[in-house]
Prior knowledge:
- This protein has helices at 61-67, 107-116, 128-131, 164-174, 207-226, 231-237, 294-302, and strands spanning 4-5, 11-12, 20-22, 29-33, 41-43, 75-81, 84-91, 97-101, 122-127, 136-151, 186-190, 194-199, 239-255, 270-273, 282-285, 290-293.
- The chain is α+β, with helices and mostly antiparallel strands.
- It folds into 3 domains: 1-52, no CATH class; 60-135 and 260-302, no CATH class; 139-250, Alpha-Beta Plaits, CATH 3.30.70.
- The strands form 4 sheets. A 7-stranded mixed sheet has the order 6-7-8-9-14-15-16. A 4-stranded antiparallel sheet has the order 11-12-10-13. It has a 3-stranded antiparallel sheet with strand order 3-4-5, with no helix packed on it.
- β1 and β2 form a beta hairpin.
- α4 (164-174) packs across α5 and α5 crosses α6 (231-237).
- The longest helix is centred in the last third of the chain and has 20 residues, at 207-226.
- Residues 23, 25-26, 28, 44, 52 line the site of zinc ion (ZN).
Amino acid sequence: MRYAINEKKERVEVSHSGEMAKCEICKSNVKGRKGEQRIKHWYHHERKTIDCDDWHEPISEWHLKWQNLFPKKNREVTITRKKISHRADILLNNGLVIEIQNSSIKFSDIEKRESFYEKNNLIWILNGNNLANKSILTEDIFHYKYKLSISIPKVFEFVENYDFKKILNNILEDTEIGYLKSEKNLFEIKNENILIFKFIEDEITDFHLRDIQYKYYVACVYERLYEQIELEKFRKLIEIEYGSINEKICELRLIKKYWKKFIDKMRYPIFIDNLNGINENEIYYYSKNKIIDKKNFIDHYLKYT
Ligand SMILES: [Zn+2]
């Protein structure tokens, strides 16, 4: 561990090897160790190598770098719950715990930590250098060139309880139009009543024919729901357009190699530092597939110190 309590009851780091202090959790004597090989730390010399916090892990340079971004009072803070104590890597004033994970961790330990810190709320920061060094973040670029839009009337005064959303859902579920929602295509609903499909290639060669077909499908759905009430009028209100567009969409994709399965067992937000494919001033928000500016990320959490 990084901090222990000295004779003056101050939380201190090791200043020289052999220095004595007391553990904040179990109050037993701890000895300072400072050498070339390992980062200076306090250890429970009376208990041999066993730390009273059984989640204890060796301190790493990377670990220190992250902890040092936060004030001392927020680093390695003891949290006690039901007489069990653990040292959180970083505890913010709003209760959030930041766990800085440099090495692999067992599924069962992830579960234990997440449930212990549940009341606090938690985020994980993983060291990509150690935990994902064969994986790489890349960007896929999709170029959409064609757009089909199908617009359904939002109101139709001839039908009592007319429900355009119901028609829309039925179109997507039960007609050939729904099949346009393939993996390669982009699909969205605009203004609640317009179905939009974007294509990379020209998928609708005979638009005139498709126009008739799609209007027919939509009208069939309408007929099924509302019988033939003003069916022709309804059909005329359907608007279908097809044309070229020029839209590029970049999507981040993490290529996982020798991926550590424990990472996907974490239920709380995961951020990966030192990941191949991002800059040093960025951090990858794995749970949301987003790159975040590291400074913004840190500043956001520093508000709670
Ligand atoms: Zn102890």
